[in-house]
Amino acid sequence: MRPWEVEQRYLRKHHSEREECKMGIFTKSGQSSVNSCNTTIIAAGTKIRGELQVGGRMYVDGEFSGPIDSTSIITVGKSGYIEGDVAAEKLIITGGFSGTADCGEIRILAGGRVVGQITCKTLMIERGGIFNGQSIIKKSPIGISGRSQDEIPIRTANNTSDNVTCFSESSKVVKSGA
Q1: Can you name the residues that pair with 100 across neighbouring β-strands?
Q2: Residues 166/123, Cβ–Cβ less than 8 Å
């Protein structure tokens, strides 16, 4: 079963029958089709260069180069790669990403590779995920001490597959592993 078919099946099951769902799929041939579930998919083997504004979810198993602005979740699959500036509610990476990201939450899962500068409220790097760059962790409007704060200073991280690193607005750097 293809990745978008899994998501499509899940969303059909969890959406009411009255909701309209659409999914735009870009394939290697450059053709697009519309299915349900409000997810834009760039399939494996597809290369796109440009600028995207996505109103729903986005799944990338191909390659995309350029800025992406999304109001939802962007997922980079195992064979996917994004190069550019990304702004989204959440960025989940199991493939590759190079550039800058400004998101509420960023998750680098096992096999994910990130190079660049990222800004987020929560950063999670799973064992086997690689991050090489700078991170800015946004704080909530009211800090732990009760004073208004904007950001935690930039941290530089060079993770290996032996560590799991978690950054978040309310915690210190947490490392586990060998």
Answers
A1: 85, 117
A2: yes
Between the alpha carbon of residue 58 and those of residues 18, 64, 87, 163, the distances in Å are 22, 11, 12, 28
163 CB neighbour count, 10 Å cutoff: 16
Strand ranges (DSSP E) for 109-162?
Answer: 113-120, 122-125, 130-137, 155-158
Query: Distance between CA atoms of 86 and 39, rounded to whole angstroms?
Result: 17
pLDDT score recorded for residue 38: 82
| CA neighbours closer than 13 Å in the CB half-sphere of residue 36 | 16
CA terminus-to-terminus distance, the chain: 36
Close Cβ partners of 6 (under 8 Å, ≥ 6 residues apart): none
Nearest to 137 by CA among 161, 108, 101: 101
**Token pair in block for residue 36:** 């349900």
Closest CA to 49 of 28, 29, 67, 31: 67
Q: Tell me the per-residue pLDDT of 56-87, one tens digit each, with 9 for 90 and over.
A: 899 999 999 999 999 999 999 999 999 999 99
Nearest residue to 165 (alpha-carbon basis) of 131, 134, 137: 131
- The strand ranges marked E within 27-120 are 32-35, 39-42, 47-49, 52-54, 57-60, 63-65, 68-70, 73-76, 81-93, 96-108, 113-120
The pair of structure tokens assigned to 16 is 């009411």
pTM summary value: 0.66
